[in-house]
Amino acid sequence: MNFAETAALSTPARRSGRGYVDFNVVAEAQRPMDIRLVNWGRWCHGPMRRDISPMFRGMPREPQLRQPGDVAAELMDPMDAAKVAKAVAQLPEKHRAALNWCYVMDSRSKEASPGRACKKLGTSLQGLADLLRDARQMLINRGA
Q1: Apex CA 101: angle with CA 98 and CA 103, to 5°?
Q2: How far apart are CA 13 and CA 19, in angstroms?
Q3: How far is CA 85 from the centre of its chain?
Q4: CA-CA distance, 126 to 140, in Å (whole number)?
Q5: DSSP string of 64-124?
Q6: Model confidence pLDDT, tens digit, residues 53-86
């Protein structure tokens, strides 16, 4: 199967009657804001690592050998995250909720499913994608 055939199968009309929406697709002009929102989402969770059991969070970490040139995988800019948080707080409620669902909510929780988010916001899957796109654009337009 070539690329064109694969792309044809993944079009909304072919995937299902309800449609298919890829929430990971971000317009090129919105990529810098998406990166800042990912940073904001990390900042909202605080310094605790979610992959460690709460019982062992207080234990000191094992020493890790670092090589010259190593960079931490999850660098976070708390100053920029605070600016983004302030700008997000000024958005309309539905746009704020959509950003919270996409960037802050733990993807392992039951509430993180797109269907539940749509039901909570009273919109469709495409409507949720539109809210995300519009919220990013609002932040860009407001100079966040």
Answers
A1: 100
A2: 6
A3: 14
A4: 21
A5: ----TT---TT---HHHHHHHHHHHHTS-HHHHHHHIIIIIS-TTSGGGSHHHHHHHHT--
A6: 555 556 665 555 554 444 444 577 889 999 999 9
Instruction: Say how many CA atoms lie within 13 Å of 141 toward its Cβ.
Output: 8
CA 107 to chain centre: 9
Q: What is the pTM of this model?
A: 0.69
pLDDT at 74: 56
Alpha-carbon gap, residue 65 to 89, rounded angstroms: 41
Structure tokens at 30: 């919105």
| Spatial contact of 99 and 135, defined as CB atoms under 8 Å apart | yes
User: Distance (Å, rounded) from C-alpha 142 to C-alpha 19?
Assistant: 32
- CA-based nearest residue to 17, from 131, 124, 132: 124
Only one residue has tokens 């929102």, namely 37
Sign, Cα dihedral of 87, 92, 95, 97: positive
Task: Please report, rounded to a whole number, the percentage of residues in the chain having pLDDT higher than 90.
Answer: 40
- The rounded distance, in Å, linking the Cα atoms of 91 and 81 is 16
